[in-house]
Amino acid sequence: MEVVGKSMKRVDAFGKVTGEAKYTNDLCPKDALIAHVVHSTIANGEVLSIDTSEAEKVPGVVKIVTCFDVPDIQFPTAGHPWSVEAAHQDIADRKLLNTRVRLYGDDIAAIVGVDNVACERAERLLKIEYKEYPSFTTVEDALKPEATPLHPDLRKTNELIHTSFKSSPDYDYEQAKERAVREYGAEHVREYEQTYRTQRVSHCHIEVATSWAYVDVNGKVTVTASTQIPHIMRRVIAQALGWPVGKVRVIKPYLGGGFGNKQDILYEPLNAYLSVVCGGRCVCLETTREECISQTRVRHAVIGKTKALYTTDGRLLARTLDGYANKGAYASHGHAIAASVATVYKDLYNDAYGCRADMTTVFTNSASAGAMRAYGVPQSVFLADCQIDDICHREGFDPLKFRMDNCVGKGFRDPGNGITYYSYSMKECMRRGAEYIHWDEKRKAYANQTGPIRHGVGMSIFMYKVGVYPISLETSSARMILNQDGSIQVELSATEIGQGADTVFTQMASETTGITPDKVYIVSTQDTDLSPFDTGAYASRQSFVTGKAVKKCGLELRNRILDYAAYMLGRPVEELMIHDNNICERIPEEGTTIQTDLSAGNGYGYVPDGSVDENDRYQDWLDADVKHWNIDDLPSGRKSILRDTGKILAKPGKVLLSMKDLAENAFYSLDRSEHITAEVTNHCKENTYASGCTFADITVDMEMGTVKIDHLVNVHDSGTLLNPQLAEAQVHGGMAMGIGYALSEELLYNEKGRPLNNNLLDFKIPTALDVPDLKVIFLQMDDPMGPYGNKALGEPPVISVAPAIRNAILNATGVAMNELPMTQQRLVAAFQQHGLI
């Protein structure tokens, strides 16, 4: 059928554009009580007392709960799969409400009332006594000896975790320097040191964090929430309240964006608790925009102290990174994001002698940092690719050629985690991007500019692994049900968060079963009492990990349907296939047999004479000189069949039976009634890399400190595109987010630790007027690890935009901006410092 790979219209498009799609607050009962969280007015200290006596007299107040009333249970909030090994479990450092204040606006009490007015009046009457300590919002201040440890029960200092990653166990930078001098001569070896900084930013999704909870007649607590991780949320709510998991039910309706903020457990456990203490009544807890920006999660601010060793002819020899990640007040995702920063810095380039990347995560009195789109990789690539361009600028190297010569190569395998490039287009991505932006011509044209207005081109590359295997568990389940009319229902707990997952899963189910997309009904609402298990939407995992489950389930359902068709028709199942909602004769094509499933990387080669070579596996085909055909060389239209059937390439013959007639018979036959369903679990133990680059062509007005983006192009190797139109939309969104990260967005604090711009007026995200026309180029290379040749796409578009813009500013002006965001104020100050204005 080849449904996968086409730009099918989104299955949720009509409901979303007409407003019929129901989000969390749309479904909240009208008589629900309203909850407000009371936040601390200091950034560091302790709550000594809270007098609620006057507040409780306010008409409409139902319940006031303080930090002295909640269960004394510390729990983790990260949206990670749970580890059965205690040493690998997330850090439990948070309570429903906190007596120990660790950031301005920490959660210290909650008021439940009949409406917002009652809650606001009551909050003004609370009398709160604090013991205040000096606050610190930066890593440097948090590591000073006099800084008060924020979590003394966990750590003696504010350092959470320090890790060191090396390209080889015996790598040492100083030894690499000595070796370089011996092999190349001191006059041909150079060293470059620089420190780079990235900032904390908010996700700014359209729908704020919100939930509502009630207790059912059987004592089960139901929480309806805007979340990316319903099954993980269920587990964390139970942990936070000391309940069995079965007592909790989580429902996720349509969701208005998450970007990783909703891969954390936010106020949902508190909401569940408030419902219980209010006698089981429904309680709605919706954050304000200000709360959502500064009291939920942010992207880690990172400081990277870097060194690089290279030769005068452009060979990268060795690099080091000593980095610090600003964790904020609570652990959230712990050290995992900092570890991601280090890993990608180490892996992005092929250092001749090796690389070391160390990262330290530090608690501070600021917003807790957690997951945000691309999980530390934008910070890592900013450190790595600013360093590369600085070297090139210093030595007069062409940044494109330098990257071509030194980027990680085909077949790269990370020695630490074993993830391998099974399909590789990094260099071709760079070639295509350079061609589009007219790199060579513009580098020449923009040389030797004078005056306040200048032009520049810059670039940056990226690599991104798919999902979390082998660092953590990757598992997903899928369920498919044959309906009475011959259509099918698809049930998943992989979550649609705006990225188009439901549409792609519909295409996958159609492709694999032979039932057309209009007859595939996907259930977008996840309900942990009903939906099969999945860890949720994060790590660009869903089309890869859940996609494998959908494919596996589709094959199972198809086989069961064909088995029933064989019974009805009295024919061998090998003679039948499903095509366009019909049971058809299967017409084999001569000499085209293959064996097993290539998507798992263990299929056998399709060779010109039609035989099967059981000694050569698919990944061995990647070399151009092998005798087997690469899957991309197969005749048009056969790739999906090859991957799909696992047996014989075939085409449909005569129609024998409609799916509608088969389904009616299966449900109602007096002879053999059979309700045809399939449910499978896929435990994913494979991974691969997506890669690509960004090229920026800009105009800088140095006197005004403005950067106008004239052309911006992202080039991606994301394997086979499942839906090209959705893919392009994903990249456009990520590029826009990258522009804000580069030029304007930063959550700021004063010296007392109070947030200064936690609102959409002062937190400057790009508007439609700030985003230029965006260009996307895809290089489609079928990847053997993906269920349909696909790999990650959701997060990579944001990664390399900021360093590409920064490097274009360097090309235009000769000024290296080593801190994000590159605001007008910072640009003007830098240009003044360099005597340009």
UniProtKB/TrEMBL annotation:
<dbReference type="InterPro" id="IPR036856">
    <property type="entry name" value="Ald_Oxase/Xan_DH_a/b_sf"/>
</dbReference>
<dbReference type="Pfam" id="PF01315">
    <property type="entry name" value="Ald_Xan_dh_C"/>
</dbReference>
<dbReference type="InterPro" id="IPR050028">
    <property type="entry name" value="XdhA_XDHase"/>
</dbReference>
<dbReference type="InterPro" id="IPR046867">
    <property type="entry name" value="AldOxase/xan_DH_MoCoBD2"/>
</dbReference>
<keyword id="KW-0500">Molybdenum</keyword>
<protein>
    <submittedName>
        <fullName>Molybdopterin-dependent oxidoreductase</fullName>
    </submittedName>
</protein>
<dbReference type="GO" id="GO:0005506">
    <property type="term" value="F:iron ion binding"/>
</dbReference>
<dbReference type="InterPro" id="IPR000674">
    <property type="entry name" value="Ald_Oxase/Xan_DH_a/b"/>
</dbReference>
<dbReference type="GO" id="GO:0004854">
    <property type="term" value="F:xanthine dehydrogenase activity"/>
</dbReference>
<dbReference type="InterPro" id="IPR037165">
    <property type="entry name" value="AldOxase/xan_DH_Mopterin-bd_sf"/>
</dbReference>
<dbReference type="GO" id="GO:0002197">
    <property type="term" value="C:xanthine dehydrogenase complex"/>
</dbReference>
<keyword id="KW-0560">Oxidoreductase</keyword>
<dbReference type="Pfam" id="PF20256">
    <property type="entry name" value="MoCoBD_2"/>
</dbReference>
<feature type="domain" description="Aldehyde oxidase/xanthine dehydrogenase a/b hammerhead">
    <location>
        <begin position="18"/>
        <end position="134"/>
    </location>
</feature>
<dbReference type="Pfam" id="PF02738">
    <property type="entry name" value="MoCoBD_1"/>
</dbReference>
<dbReference type="InterPro" id="IPR016208">
    <property type="entry name" value="Ald_Oxase/xanthine_DH-like"/>
</dbReference>
<dbReference type="InterPro" id="IPR008274">
    <property type="entry name" value="AldOxase/xan_DH_MoCoBD1"/>
</dbReference>
